[in-house]
Amino acid sequence: MSKDIVFDLIQKEHDRQVNGVELIASENFVSDDVLRAMGSVLTNKYAEGLPGKRYYGGCQVVDEVEDVARERAKQLYNAEWVNVQPHSGASANSAAMLACLNPGDTMLGFDLSHGGHLTHGSPVNYSGKLYRPVFYGVNRETGRVDMDMVRDVARKEKPRLIVCGASAYSRDWDYATFRQIADEVGALLMADMAHPAGLIAKGLLRNPLEHCHLVTTTTHKTLRGPRGGMILVGKNFDNPWGLKTKKGTLRGMTGLLDSAVFPGMQGGPLEHVIAAKAVAFGEALRPEFETYGRQVMANAAAMADEFMQRGYHVISGGTDNHSMLIDLRNKNITGKEAEEALVASEITVNKNMVPFDTQSPFVTSGIRVGTAAVTTRGLKVDDIRQIVGWIDEVISDHTNPSTIASVKEMVEEKMSAYPLFGWTEVVAE
Ligand SMILES: *Cc1c(COP(=O)(O)O)cnc(C)c1O
Q1: What would the mean pLDDT of 135-146 be, rounded to a whole number?
Q2: Which of 85, 257, 335, 394 has the highest count of CB atoms within 10 angstroms of its CB?
Q3: 304 shares its domain with 262
Q4: What is the CATH number of the domain that holds 398?
Q5: Residue 17 belongs to a domain
Q6: For the segment 284-315, what is each residue's pLDDT rounded down to a tens digit?
């Protein structure tokens, strides 16, 4: 066995994951099989290009691996086409935008401070530097995406691309209305389903592929695969939509997307990660994954309810998916202070801007929480309500070290009953 200190650190991180309650909405725990595929000899192989069309020899086996991943992904989402090579969600988005936009083109995205993602036009991201981003947001009263605002901004700014999807938004998306708006102003419509992808795969939320010209996602959030991304196109969407190559010839969208991933954005694909994606997609195709998804949503609904019963302001008054944003301004604590006190109690959350926030992104007025990871551990609605009680205890008394110590002890004691890997099936309540 290697004595490299790195393996001691991996053990420490393993223990941290086992001991704590993981409520970061973008995280999950992969199966032993996904881990095994990721840590395999496939990492040794160069395979630039696509299955059957590679720039390197010896790709006959990884071709088959990538084809399994592609077929399973298509089956999960009823897709016509997929590229499983993007290294991450951000890479998938950059390739998608490279295919759809020219530098300086206008794109319409969801405001980062209302729940959108950095890659949807933030000024600190390539998307905000290369393109001309404009934004829509949520309605102040309802906390839901303001479709009138989407339509107004789209009519006024005439974006070439409209992006829906978010990192911190607890409601389902009205893709059909987004599509009407896109058609009216002549825009392409892209959905980024990075967060709810696992729930969409089982039909528990609307499928954006039915309405959007292209869809990007991560594979490691509710979909519970390895860290990575992909781009999908639904049935009957491989039309040029006026997209032209540099030489002015019209090309199908899927061809443009393939070449935007490689050679446009990336070099060699991570075939070990693609193998792990294939394994995770296989798991997601099984009926147990629907049971899991339903439990994720039942747990999130119970979590939102318990927070609200305790006087917390859950943005939009509940959740349709696995996650929610909590505005802490009525609790006299910032997002940063809440995150620090909760992490000290082994309850991991992240601070997050809330719509119309008055604090900076480093302080924030809220936290974001989600149930994908704890549901994989095996927690049910009663456990979730108990944990919200502990969160309330810590937040109400966050400067008191003995409160933090006592909650930490209860968390560790509870979680010792739930093994991290090799989970057993989740049974719905
Ligand atoms: C997480 C996320 C991403 C980025 O994924 P990475 O793998 O971290 O690059 C992109 N878009 C949305 C909406 C996300 O939530």
Answers
A1: 97
A2: 85
A3: no
A4: 3.90.1150.10
A5: yes
A6: 999 999 999 999 999 999 999 999 999 999 99
Same domain, 181 and 91: yes
Please check whether residues 123 and 262 belong to one and the same domain. Answer: yes
Say yes or no to pLDDT of 223 above 90.
yes
**Using CA positions, which residue lies closest to atom 8 of ligand 1?**
89
Show the domain range for 188.
39-284
pLDDT for 287: 97
Helix (H, G, I), strand (E, B) or coil at 227: coil
Determine whether the shortest distance from the Cβ of 165 to ligand 1 is under 6 A: yes
189 and 214 share one domain:
yes
Q: Which residues are catalytic?
A: 46, 48, 192, 218, 221, 227
- Is residue 269 located within the same domain as residue 320? no
SS3 call for 301: helix
Phi-psi group of 177: left, alpha or beta (phi > 0 → left; psi -120 to 50 → alpha; rest → beta)? alpha
**pLDDT recorded at residue 424:** 42
Decide if 426 is inside a domain: no
CB 195 near ligand 1, within 6 Å: yes
| CA triple 18-167-21, angle to 5 deg | 15
Tell me the β-bridge partners of 145: 138
Pocket test for ligand 1, best of 117, 230, 270, 277 (most atoms within 8 A of CB): 117
Expressed in angstroms and rounded, the spacing between residue 191 Cα and the centre of ligand 1 is: 12
pLDDT value for 246: 57
Strands 347-348 and 366-370, bridge-based pairing = unpaired
Specify the pLDDT at position 301.
98
Distance, in Å, from the CA atom of 156 to the CA atom of 158, rounded to the nearest integer, reads 6
The one-letter code for the residue type at 105 is: D
- What is the Å distance from ligand 1's center to 164 Cα? 13
Residue 161's DSSP bridge partners are 107, 188
> Bigger pLDDT: 254 or 315?
315
| 166 CA → ligand 1 middle, Å | 9
347 lines ligand 1 (CB under 6 A): no
Is 152 inside any structural domain? yes
What integer is the mean pLDDT of 189-202? 98
CA-nearest residue, atom 10 of ligand 1? 89
